[in-house]
């Protein structure tokens, strides 16, 4: 039934009696935290899908002890890797003829303050134009040492994305050519997308913004 | 010329040629650009932080302000991502209408880019041709959702509202005139010696560089890489529609212009196919956890009133999880990386704006060109600061 149907004008105060319209839909679980049956989900259970995923098999064979976890939620393959292996993994993903992740899609930082020891995550999204597959690579980081090697030499586009992750989440990238704030002003204090940064906070910014070039 | 010290000039942030707020600092020798650096962030308002303070449905209003030249595409991309996270299929009529709105929005995004970039090259007439038709399409959106620029067209689980009777007929009339306008611009520009001289070979990028930078959309296809989300991972109705993806060869300004022109024609073709059979039926899922009940029910029935109240005060809740939903927006792949903790608000939203990657390659593309070419390249890339800075 259409919510905003205009062909008939709404007739207020006309009771329809008990109506069938308020049954919970079978597509969404009434418990918001529960994952309902999903018509868009690929076939098979998560374990089955992971077991027959060729990309994951390839990655696992090359980085046997370095993969922390892998998931397949709604058809998105996610691989978590130890932080000292990220550049090696990215280079492998780009160059291996069976993977060929040549299109760099996205990089971002996420803050999970409740996860002790893995408060930050750097998330890569990659795509292969030739082989039509996608992967999400995650690097969990400890808040006490939120630093990871920069991947700017693997894909050219990574440079600004890492600057953005540094600017908004406060993750530092080792060997980055110009690790400065990108979107916010130089005088900005703190990192806006951290969960402990209040959204109403204001800054007084006085200086003009110099352009400093990549090393 | 070898002993000449480079002279540093500043273009922007508020400059006619940038169209939006971006800053370029360039070292020039004579009139040739030796090196340049870009600075962004002038319209940064931290979309992602704002989204974390709002309900899932309220964020749709914010997505209008990303690429404000084609707001419906952002709305649809965001809602598809949220529906992927919920695991929800919308009714067939909503799928049809969303596809139709996507293509209309793509047409006016490309018309804006073509018209505005030609103005920057001095061809003002085309601007009137393209913008006259663009206004006509804006009328079609105004009829549906009441606003022209920031449409907020979709909702999680469907659309804001259904179209009025006779909508197909009005779309058909306007797309007919649209094809004529595209032909007018085509006749004026595509074989025009001055335009070709200004655009051919200007700002080229190789296919490998484009992929490495993360180019998507017309800029990537102009470099000869066959990647279009509508073909690579068909969403909505694109798997069943007949259309071609135009490819360029050199990755220069002229190829970008040609790709956009052909995409407008293909989009008109898609719209014509869609108008053949829009199915009747509802445009929202019948799910009381997601869509508001009918007003007549709300006014006459306590359960519906409570339902309405709960949905307005608490909003939609989506399951725990994380997805990356991506669609083909006007400038390329628009991705939403959504993390949900099962609460009323998104835990984290990361937008992957197509412009960000494209603008990053600007210093490389502009190197060795003249200052006048900066304007041509900048306009041909169709950088929208709203989604560049978020």
3D structure, described in words:
- The complex is a heterodimer of chains A (215) and B (390).
- With 215 residues, chain A is α/β, with parallel strands linked by helices.
- Chain A has a domain at 42-174: NADH:ubiquinone oxidoreductase Nqo5 subunit (Beta Polymerase, domain 2, 2-Layer Sandwich), CATH 3.30.460.
- In chain A, 17% of the residues lie in helices and 20% in strands.
- Chain A has helices at 46-51, 54-62, 86-95, 158-168; strands at 67-73, 76-81, 103-111, 120-127, 134-141, 147-149, 172-174.
- A 5-stranded mixed sheet of chain A has the order 1-2-5-4-3. A two-stranded parallel sheet of chain A has the order 6-7.
- Chain A starts with 45 loop residues before the first helix and ends in a 41-residue tail after the last strand.
- The model of chain A is unreliable at 1-37 (pLDDT under 50).
- With 390 residues, chain B is an alpha+beta fold.
- Chain B has one domain (54-340): Cytochrome-c3 Hydrogenase, chain B (Orthogonal Bundle), CATH 1.10.645.
- Chain B has a 3-stranded antiparallel sheet with strand order 1-2-3.
- In chain B, a hairpin with a 2-residue loop joins strand 6 and strand 7.
- In chain B, helix 3 packs antiparallel against helix 4, helix 4 (92-120) packs antiparallel against helix 16 (371-381) and helix 5 packs antiparallel against helix 6.
- The model of chain B has no long low-confidence stretch (mean pLDDT 87).
- The chains are: A alpha/beta (215), B alpha+beta (390).
For the report, how would you describe the main beta sheet of chain B? Answer: 3 strands, antiparallel
Shape estimate of chain B = globular
Oligomeric status of the shown chains? heterodimer
Kindly report the CATH topology of chain B: Cytochrome-c3 Hydrogenase, chain B
Instruction: List low-pLDDT spans of chain B.
Output: none
CATH topology of the domain at 42-174 in chain A: Beta Polymerase, domain 2
Helix and strand content put the structural class of chain A at alpha/beta
In whole angstroms, the N-to-C terminal distance of chain B is 42 Å
